[in-house]
Design goal:
O-succinylbenzoate synthase activity; TIM Barrel; Enolase_C-like; about 350 residues; about 40% helix; magnesium ion binding; alpha/beta; o-succinylbenzoate synthase; 3-stranded antiparallel beta sheet; 2 domains; Enolase-like, domain 1; 7-stranded parallel beta sheet
Length: about 350
């Protein structure tokens, strides 16, 4: 039986407004995607993000076209219809994966991977751009809550201040906690070199997107200075082939909702692992369906490092109760069939 597709538009306020390079975000708007075949139901989430995906209007248009297509061309035709709209495709393909794993009565991560039982996946917490003291206090609080990997937002303050923030973070965290940094493309090559030299002295493991997305050769030149280089926006702009040809990254950040689906992210994950590049699964600012899908993706991939999945607290409201418990620096993976999100 060909499933029926329905959409529900939502708007969820953030706990605090977020300033980005593309403007201020006060709420997250998107679409809950529902597939029903009479025996099982699958849910997906399409939540466009400025600068990363198509607009809300373009996403809605693509999903409405998929609704019209599915009765004649089936699921494959509907997916093809939204192929050029990454947020819409993420929502539809996640609903398909949830539906199929619900039919199989298996958790989504087992549908994506194998039958191995995975109870937890490691996660990092994100430390905002505060003063050195605020940074140290936030790291101390995160460590007391069980996190053993902290990612510091850097690049807004001076390089010297960021190095001091990292020093204070290391003092607060102790020697065993992993520290990462994310500059969101803020620096010049010279600034990045200076920051990396300071970060290396305090044991920062990964620096994410130190230069603008277009600077592949610049990122390549930053490697080998004692801190691994990860690309995020650079993956969306260039793709894996160009990154590998330039030798621009030690690690790659994968956001399923910005790449066009959990299936695309899974394929890229396997690909970069073969190339000996470390994959790191993260979310953007998403509702519970997309976040839980990313947790299942991470659980389906063996030996991932800590991933950026603990972002639900950024929302003041959500679509349903979060089935993922975060404790002791890890996400407890839902073991119910499908996504495991109920109450939608």
């Amino acid at each position: 039986m060909t499933p029926t597709l329905s959409l529900r538009r939502f708007s969820l306020p953030l706990e605090s407004p977020l300033e980005t390079a593309h403007g201020r975000i006060d709420e997250r708007e998107g679409f809950l995607v529902k597939l029903t075949d009479g025996d099982a139901v699958g849910y997906g989430e399409a939540t466009p993000l400025p600068g990363w995906t198509e607009s809300l209007e373009a996403c809605e248009d693509a999903l409405e076209r998929a609704k019209e297509t599915i009765s004649e061309a089936g699921l494959s035709g509907a997916i093809e219809e939204v192929d050029d709209r990454v947020a819409a495709r993420h929502g539809l393909t996640l609903a398909v994966a949830d539906l199929r794993s619900a039919r199989e009565a298996t958790p989504l991560y087992q549908h994506l991977g194998d039958d191995a039982l995975v109870g937890r996946v490691p996660v990092n917490t994100t430390i905002g751009d505060g003063t050195p003291k605020e940074t140290a206090d936030a790291v101390e609080s995160a460590v007391s809550r069980g996190f053993d990997c902290c990612k510091l937002k850097v690049g807004v303050r001076s390089v010297e201040t960021d190095v001091e923030r990292v020093r204070r973070a290391r003092d607060a965290a102790g020697p065993e906690v992993e520290l990462r940094a994310d500059a969101n493309g803020s620096w010049t090559v010279e600034e990045a070199e200076s920051a990396i030299d300071g970060f290396a002295d305090h044991g920062v493991s990964i620096l994410e997107q130190p230069l603008p997305a277009g600077a592949l050769s610049g990122h390549a030149a930053l490697r080998g200075r004692g801190v691994d280089i990860a690309l995020d926006e650079g993956l969306l702009e260039h793709g894996v082939d160009a990154i590998c040809e330039a030798g621009a990254a030690d690690a790659i950040v994968l956001k399923p909702m910005a790449l066009g689906g959990i299936d695309v992210a899974q394929q890229i994950t396997a690909w970069v692992q073969e190339l000996e590049i470390t994959p790191i699964v993260t979310t953007t600012i998403d509702a519970v369906v997309a976040r839980t899908g990313a947790v299942h993706l991470a659980a389906s991939v063996p030996e991932l490092p800590a991933c950026g999945l603990a972002t639900g607290e950024l929302l003041a409201e959500d679509l349903a109760r979060d089935p993922v418990l975060f404790e002791n620096g890890s996400a407890v993976v839902p073991q119910a069939k499908g996504l495991g999100v109920s109450g939608l």
